[in-house]
Each structure stands twice: as structure tokens, then as C-alpha cells.
Amino acid sequence: ADLLSFREDAAIPPPGTEAFDVYSGAVREACSIRELLNKNTDELQGVVNALAGQYVPPAPGGDLLRDGSGVLPTGRNIHALDPYRMPSKVAMARGRAATNLTLQMHLRDNQGTYPETVAVNLWGLEAIKTRGESLGVVLALVGAVPVIEATGRVVRYDLVPLEELGRPRIDVLASLSGIFRDSFANVVELLDDLLRRAADADEDPEMNYVRKHALALVDEGEDMEGATARIFSNPPGEFGSLVNERVTDSSWEEESALGETWASRNSFSFGK
After folding, report:
1. C-alpha span between 213 and 234 (Å, rounded)
2. How many alpha carbons fall within 13 Å on the CB side of residue 17?
3. How do residues 104-143 score in pLDDT, each as one tens digit?
4. Which DSSP string do the residues of 49-71 spell out, in sequence order?
5. How many CA atoms lie within 13 A of 16 on its CB side?
6. DSSP state of 122
7. Alpha helices, H only, the chain
């Protein structure tokens, strides 16, 4: 307590209070991070061990502020992330905040009405850097949360009850980069499962736009599998929309031709 109170500094909460417990926990965490940062000399030893063909311990890479102290100490054999742990808690929180801001802006600019569909790009490198913030946006729009098993892996995305959500479920059109499609196949399957369950949910279509739009497509003659398809990307094994190539080659006359190229390259549905 004497160490944490820094010689009775008046700005420090008095010991025995809840504020002091919070403060002392933060100080201990800061001291732990300082010790981990001071181990940066392990970087040189890690290089020496790697050059000698010796074992270099693995560890997740990332940013200290975004991903926490688990990325320290440096000098280990870093990997991007575990795709079975997406989105992280921080990514989910940031995705939810971005969703709330988007919906607030739409409500403000559209006479208090919610958007029925929002398009979201899911990019591989973005997902790696942020631990799945864009995925968090998709889940927040639909009104879902990740279910995490004891090992820390995400095994399912569960729908939040409408009473708890307090607004309609927003339909999502997800456009995947080729890297995301191939690197996060488990996420694609979980998302597809979530959206199909949202379409099948026994809820008022005016409070569940995923279901509303799926039922409308079925009425137009689409089968339920096609009516619930929301995840699209390039053809399997291929990457890119080819729009840049057409622009570089000047092989287009009208802007609509570029749009058609993009649409034809991103019209392949993915899921379970």
C-alpha cells in the first residue's frame, strides 16, 4: 500500500476504498507492462536462436494498446491471430460502437427510420490488424453476440432477443476479399449460419429485416437457400474484382461497364 500510494500523494484515492482498488490494479498492470517492455533485449536473442535453427517461442503479434499485454515481450515468433477467436472482445466493442454511430446518423438524416440493409466489406488484412472489427459491425447490425467456449474459441454467433436489442435487426450484405474468404472459412460458415437463423426466426418481419427480405425473395420464386444468401466474394481460388485491370488496360467505355465487372466478379455466394 505504501508503494502504491506514492508517499501519500493527495491525488491517490485513500486505501480501503473501491477507487483505490481500481487504482492499485492499474498500477500493478502498468508495472507488469514495464517489466515486459524491458525484455526487448529478447529480440536479439530470438534472432540468434532462429539463425542457429533453435526453437523460438510463438506468440500473437499486434499492438499493445489495441491487443493488450499478451503481445509482450517482443522477440518471439509472432503469428497474426487465431481465426477461431474472432472477433476479440475489443473488436466486438469497437464494432458495436461503429454500428451505433452509423445507425444514429441514419436516424438523424432519414426522419428517424432505420436502414433495412447495410453493406459491409470484410477484408483479410483489416481483420488481422483489428482482430475482427468489421465482423463486429456485422454482428452488431444483425443483433448477435459471439458464444465463446471454455478454450476461448468462438463456436457460434447467437441472436440477441429483440427485447434486449431494442431495435430492428438490420440486414447485411457482406462483400469478402479473397484473403478473408480463404483465411477465415470458419467465420464465413458461422456468419452464414447466423443469417439463416435470423431469416428463420419467429419474429415480426418489420423488426427483423433479414427475415423480411428473405420472405420477399421467396415470394418472388427464390428458394430459401438463395433467399438467405448474404455473403459474396470472387470465384473460389481467384482474387480481385479485375476493375483495376480494366482501368489500366482502358478496356471500357462507360462507367457502368466497370460496375458490371465488379458485380460479376463478386456474385459468388459462400457459406456452410
Report:
1. 23
2. 8
3. 999 999 999 999 999 999 999 899 888 899 999 999 999 9
4. HHHTT----EEE---HHHH-GGG
5. 1
6. E
7. 2-5, 18-37, 42-51, 64-67, 89-109, 124-130, 133-142, 162-165, 178-183, 185-200, 209-219, 224-227, 243-249, 255-265
| Cell of residue 165, nine digits | 436489442
Q: Is-contact 225 193, C-beta < 8 A?
A: no
The answer to whether 58 touches 102, Cβ cutoff 8 Å, is: no
Q: Which residue has the cell 438467405?
A: 228
- Name the grid cell of 109: 438524416
53-90 per-residue burial string, b: 16 or more CB within 10 A, e: under 16: eeebeebbebeeeebbeebbbbbbeeeebebebbbbeb
215 pLDDT exceeds 80? yes
Q: If you average pLDDT over residues 232-245, what whole number do you get? A: 84
> Residue 129: CB partners within 8 Å, gap ≥ 6?
none
Q: Which three cell numbers stand for residue 11?
A: 491525488
CB neighbour list of residue 201: distance below 8 Å, 6 or more residues apart: 159, 208, 211
Q: What are phi and psi of 265, to 5 degrees?
A: -80, -20
C-alpha cell at 220: 418472388
CB 46 within 8 A of CB 56: yes
The span from the CA of 100 to the CA of 234, in Å, is 30
How confident is residue 49, by pLDDT bands cut at 50, 70 and 90?
very high
Helix (H) or strand (E) holding 133: helix 133-142
Q: Are 132 and 93 in contact (CB under 8 A)?
A: no
To which H or E segment does residue 132 belong?
A: none
Residues 6+ positions from 260 with CB-CB distance below 8 Å: none
